[in-house]
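Morning!

This is the sequence you dropped in the shared folder:
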Amino acid sequence: GFKIWDSSLDLGGFLIHHSIGRCDDDEIRSIFCSHLKEESLRVLDIGCGQGLVALSATYGMSSLRSQLESHCVISYTLQDYDMEVLSKATVSNVRSNLPLMRDTTMNNFKFFQVKWKTLSQLLLREVPKERRDPLSNVRLEAFEILVGSDILFSPDSCDDIASLLIVNALLYYSHKNEIARLDSQRLLSPIAFIGTKKHYFGTNGSVQYFLHRLHTRSKEFRQYALSVFSLPENFELRPFSKTYWTSPEKDRIILSIAFHVSQE
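The structure's back. Tokens below.
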């Protein structure tokens, strides 16, 4: 948590580059612009560590919002399992960098010490109310943009992140008024950007395994589309991925995950 890994630097630079650039055919910038045209934008940094990726996203989004003269309200949730990292590093890093961010204050940030599985449960509203735990009263809304670096390091982490992205997408689409049409060409998709190694030797996480579990879990979670989120019975969620950047050594990439929706 206290160490900054290479993938954090990769992803942070990637987010800033595609936010402050002015290239008209920049696909990533176009996605960001589309979300910033909405009334609000929620960003989640998964396994935030010292907050470098979240700060990069904040700098990029605040600059792009200013260019667009947008009034979109942006909120950032920084999640990590290590409370010591959050309290001793993350919060102070965010506070120290606020002068670089346009129209952004500490009120735009939430810091969340929780496991990834519990985060999915919160999105599913599955934390038991009788638990004497502050989390039992937390209600999360879907995130439009999710970022994370070096979070696919083990088979278990790949499973947890796949589940989190799918549950978030189900919640996102359940709140869209246009869901009756389910026109995937018109609906924005929540999108995740992950800075990662292709394979984590020693802990056995990999992009290949993560993508396999993402597609498998999207089918397994179909019951929630009906029972929890009240989506149409023939609702189908299809994840798709794209590699946007590869390190010169070809062992690290920036991976994006978005979703198509349809009625079978």
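Headline: The two ends are 43 Å apart (CA to CA).

More detail when I'm at my desk.
O.
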